[in-house]
Structures are given as structure tokens and as C-alpha cells.
Amino acid sequence: MTEFRAVVVTEAASPVALATAARLARRGDLVLMGARRADVCERLAARLRACGAAAFAAQLDLADTSSIDRFVEAARYLIGEADVLVTGAGLTDGSWIGAQHLAAQLIPPMVDAGQGDVILVGPELFGAPPCGARRDLDTWMSALDAEFVGTGVRASLIRSAPVGSRAVPHDVGRLLAAMVGSRGRMHLRHVEIVPPVAAPRLSKEPDVR
Description:
Blueprint: E1 6-9, H1 15-27, E2 30-35, H2 38-50, E3 55-59, H3 65-78, E4 84-88, H4 93-113, E5 116-121, H5 133-148, E6 153-160, H6 169-180, E7 190-193
Parallel strand pairs: 1-2, 1-4, 2-3, 4-5, 5-6, 6-7
Protein name: Short-chain dehydrogenase
GO molecular function, one term: oxidoreductase activity
Pfam family, one: adh_short
């Protein structure tokens, strides 16, 4: 039996986040998308609602604490307390601090409920430059691991390996949806995506002698 969950997806105007939100909403999860460009998310949310899905959008600027606080209020009104947070992490300046400020408000109800998932997504998958993100992500992940011991809340980290091609958004969305839906079963703690790279063409027939 599938158990549907209340999910918050940030940086939701990016292709990966949009693909993730759409897949989750179509299978029955309550989804709230947050982004600076809320109009982009609202267009997708409206299409999903027209198909019977529970998808919503709200403005979210991770560099503005007042915007984060308003977003949290909207989340509790639209989908209740979040069971899952999918957020881009390792961003620069106020966005990095803002992502942690948002998480700090959404995580305590998960701990109280004895279940929840916090999925950190590398910024390169959300279309942002990685900067010093790998170190920052590892640090945040370690802190969450320590915080969540014995609580029933899980932390996961997903990022793209540094290769020459990008991961396909729908493929990443499928993986993220599987992670969200794996409550009580598998826990994919650290996932590194390596996009497919075409094999080089041989200029001549190989010598098999």
C-alpha cells in the first residue's frame, strides 16, 4: 500500500526540481514548490491540479529570511507539516544560510512525528555553480546524521559527478521520487549520479591478431 507524503521542494524553477515535483504530485503526494520565480512553478502546479494532483507553489527567496518565514507559513496552510524536504544545498552567500534556516523550521515536526526525510541536492543538479559546495554539503550532511540518530528521520545527499555531460532532469526526478517513497525500506544515504558518456568511435577496425 502506497503512503502519500507532504513534500517541500525548493529551487523549484529548475528542470530537476520541476521534474521531481511533477512525478511526486502525479503519484499522489502533497507537493509544495518554492522558488523566487513562483510564476514558473504555479504554471506547472495548475496543470497538475487540473489532472487531479495536489500541487501548489509559493514564492521562496532563500536569501531573505522573511521570505522563508512566509513560505513556511504557506507550507503549513497548504500541505500541513512537511514529511519530506528536498532542497538544493551548497549555494553561495545568503542562499546557503537560508537553506539551513528553512530546514531548521521544517525538521522539528519530523522529529516529533518519528519519521521524515531531508534530501540535500547538489547545486549543479539545480543549475547553480558548485563553488565550495562539496565541502559544505559534507559538513551539513554530517551534522544532520548526528542530529537524526534515533529519531526516525533520515538524511540523504545526491549530487552529480564532475563529468562532461549533465544528468537528464527526468532521470534525477525519478530517483528522487523513489527516495521519497522508500519510507521504512531502503535508505539511499549518499548517491552520486554519473551521466552517461558516449563511447568513442574507433577510427579503424581493431587489430585482433
